[in-house]
Amino acid sequence: MRFAIPIMLMLGVLALLGFGLTHDPREVPSPLIGKPAPAFTLPGLGGTPPQLGNADLKGRPVLVNFFASWCAGCRVEHPLLMQLAKQGVEIIGIDYKDTDADGAQWLARHGNPYRVVAADAQGAAGLDWGVYGVPETYVLSSEGTILYKHIGPVTEAAWREKIAPLMGGKS
Amino acid sequence: MTALVFAAVAQAQTAGLNAEQDVRYHQLINELRCLVCQNQTIAESNAPLAVDLKEQVKKQLTEGKTNVEITTYLTDRYGDFVLYRPPFKANTLLLWAGPFVLLLGALIWALWFMRSSRKPPVQPRPVDEAAVQKLLNETRAALAAQDEPKP
């Protein structure tokens, strides 16, 4: 009985540590989950298509992937995105804070998993979407609502456990 | 820290802002977190995102937005995490109230501890007069027997 208090304190500390160690502070929860995707109008990469907006995201579940040619994490997730595109997953690319030439060159070298690519040279759309570090991937419902945000490279596990169920449910 | 303050003062007025807006500008950028380098404010950070956010704050100030409008604009996009001073809400209850709960607990424990150590001292056992007298008599008798000269 003498040890009841120290043991309780210890369990409390362990519970707090357990919570702290299993949550990545780099993953800032997005306040946009469950809300319609922020309005944006961007030119396509290299001018094709001339313009891309919210209407292009509706009608079926899509992934919106913010990437850049200067982004190391994007190289990591790239093979998986290529594979998903092959499986028929629709991915919209947004080339974030990049030049058209660099973005196009990067896609030519590593392959292009995107149905269309928009160029967000100034990062204005990124700001509205709450992007703070590429790669970031948003799962959008067919109504254009943000269902989930993945921060950092998309992994096999993240796709299987988090993203695929959201996209499969409505397709 | 002082150096930082001096640096901020030495920067003088930020281009395109009047004196009042400039004061608010520095107030705001010192209360907003840079999400890339999470332990810095956007005032301290030179990360591209921090530069963008500073530009955004400046732009909105020149548009005549209030401080609340500007912070709301940012929390709508990045959540409360962007604020260095998190608001008091249900999910920040532990954060704000936790230290006071701990303090209260410690006070209760200290009071309890002080009370329990102030118990009256242990009373001596009551003396059994008869037994003492008996022991005394026996000892006296024994001593007397010893003192008697041996035959």
Write a structural description.
The complex is a heterodimer of chains A (171) and B (151). With 171 residues, chain A is an alpha/beta fold. In chain A, 36% of the residues lie in helices and 19% in strands. In chain A, the strands form two sheets. Chain A has a five-stranded mixed sheet. Chain A is elongated. Chain A starts with a helix and ends with a helix. In chain B, α2 packs antiparallel against α3 (48-62). The A-B interface holds A 25-26, 28-32, 38, 97, 123, 127-130, 132-133 and B 35-36, 38, 48-49, 52-53, 56, 75-81.
Largest interface, Cβ cutoff 8 Å? A-B, 16 and 15 residues
Percent of sequence in beta strands of chain A? 15-25%
Mean pLDDT reading of chain A: 91
Question: What order do the SSEs of chain A take from the amino end to the carboxyl end, as H and E?
Answer: HEEEHEHEHEEH
List the helices and strands and how they pair.
The complex is a heterodimer of chains A (171) and B (151).
Chain A lengths: L3 H18 L19 E2 L9 E2 L8 E6 L4 H15 L4 E6 L3 H11 L5 E5 L3 H5 L7 E5 L5 E6 L4 H13 L3
Parallel strand pairs in A: 3-4, 4-5
Antiparallel strand pairs in A: 1-2, 3-6, 6-7
Chain B lengths: L1 H9 L8 H11 L18 H15 L4 H12 L14 H24 L12 H19 L4
Helix pairs in contact in B: 2-3
What would a concise description of this structure say?
With 171 residues, chain A is of the alpha/beta class. Chain A is built from 5 helices and 7 strands; from the N terminus they run H-E-E-E-H-E-H-E-H-E-E-H. With 151 residues, chain B is an all-alpha fold.
Features:
heterodimer; A: 171 residues; alpha/beta; two-stranded antiparallel ribbon; 5 helices; B: 151 residues; mainly alpha; 60% helix; 0% strand
